[in-house]
Amino acid sequence: MKTLKDYEYFRTENGVLYCGDNMEILPLITERIDLCLTDPPYGINIEKMAYANNENKKASKNSKAKSTAYDGGFKDDKIDIKPLLKYPKQIIWGGNYYSDVLPFSKSWLIWDKRTDDKYSNDFADGEIAYSNLKCGVRIFRFLWSGMIQGDMKNKEERFHPTQKPIPLLIWCIEKSDTEGIILDPFLGSGTTALACEKLNRKWIGIEISEKYCEIAKKRVEEYTRQLKLFK
Fold this sequence. Notes:
The protein is an alpha/beta fold. It folds into 2 domains: 4-43 and 78-229, 3-Layer(aba) Sandwich (Rossmann fold); 44-77, no CATH class. 28% of the residues lie in helices and 20% in strands. The protein has 6 helices and 11 strands. The chain has a 9-stranded mixed β-sheet with strand order 1-2-11-10-3-4-6-5-7. Helix 4 (166-176) crosses helix 5 (191-199) and helix 5 (191-199) packs parallel to helix 6 (210-229). The longest helix is centred in the last third of the chain and has 20 residues, at 210-229. The protein is globular.
């Protein structure tokens, strides 16, 4: 039987990243989690859609060509988020996609990407997070449109298709008003971990993709290395 040590990918003084299926790892965690801050899979599978569109274009140019596009029908990439609702505080991005299973809340968080006619944007103008925090609806305004970002002096490299900006995750943590351990069971490229490191907060991350675990590790290690140089 596997233990948490078997899943451990790397750790810092503040946190630890586990590589594997969070449904296997979460039951093994015994520490008290105060905040679950995460961005679970949701929405149309963009990669399959892009692939299908490309293959269909190829097929249309040659009537003899047979399209190899994904033809199973597009569906929402959704997972069971009910296990995440047991934690005292929750901030779940993409909450509008999970509204059928989420409890009632007055405390929705909105990320306004500040897109306008000046910057072309084929995706949503913003994103919505469910939360059970003791506050009303709150809005965070931060430009995030292609190569254009709200903080160009500290521009972030984009590693993950649904990557969030670090200032957004810092804002979420500060809004949560928690000093305990912060959990992200869908860590992706490690932005939640970076936000926690910048705020000197304890964190636990889980990511099933070894590719993104390595990216998260490098991002966090680069930040902590720079921090030590300036101390």
